[in-house]
Design goal:
Elements: E1 18-23, E2 28-31, H1 34-39, H2 43-46, H3 57-74, E3 76-85, E4 91-101, E5 106-113, H4 115-143, H5 153-164
Antiparallel strand pairs: 1-2, 1-5, 3-4, 4-5
Length: 165
């Protein structure tokens, strides 16, 4: 049995991502409430603004050199990591999807915050580095004599085999 959802039961502001529509000149013609709730941008500040100005400098360069050509050929891209600027000028990592609609001359964007993902990635890198340091320390302990600090018998034998073979 299928359920019919009343169209007035929800709004675009209920979505957990930023939705943005830009015209053929890259002027913003629509944003949902996520931009204000999460990033401080009111629709009054964004409507009519060039969408390029939301990107950090590095993301803008990536946008021009990669995303624009991909959109013109494939008409869409999925899961590209970019960085936007909040209304306060703070850097916000996002995952972006976009689709170009040639009939309407509009680009439809969905932008998902990647802040938590970036934090988890940083923690993973830190944990990996800590494990690497511990591995090096354990290796040093396994090949040296604790009392003298000289190579132990097992390591001397291993190195001699390597040199002699």
């Amino acid at each position: 049995m299928s359920r019919v959802i009343m169209s007035n039961a929800f709004t675009q502001d209920d979505f957990l991502c930023g939705c943005l529509v830009a015209d053929s000149e890259r002027k913003i013609v629509y944003v949902n409430g996520y931009f204000e709730r999460e990033w401080g941008w009111t629709s009054a500040l964004l409507l009519g603004k060039n969408s390029d100005s939301l990107f950090t400098r590095s993301s803008y360069i990536f946008y021009e050199s990669y995303i624009v050509p991909v959109l013109s050929i494939q008409k869409r891209f999925d899961e590209i990591q970019l960085a936007l600027l909040s209304a306060k000028g703070e850097r916000i990592p996002v995952i972006a999807n976009a689709r170009l609609n040639n009939e309407q001359y509009l680009t439809f964007w969905s932008l998902f915050s990647a802040t938590k993902r970036d934090r988890l990635y940083e923690e993973l890198v830190e944990a990996r580095n800590a494990l690497h340091e511990q591995s090096l320390a354990l290796k040093a302990l396994s090949i040296t004599d604790e009392l003298t600090g000289l190579l132990n018998r097992r390591e001397i034998k291993h190195r001699a085999e390597v040199i002699l073979n």
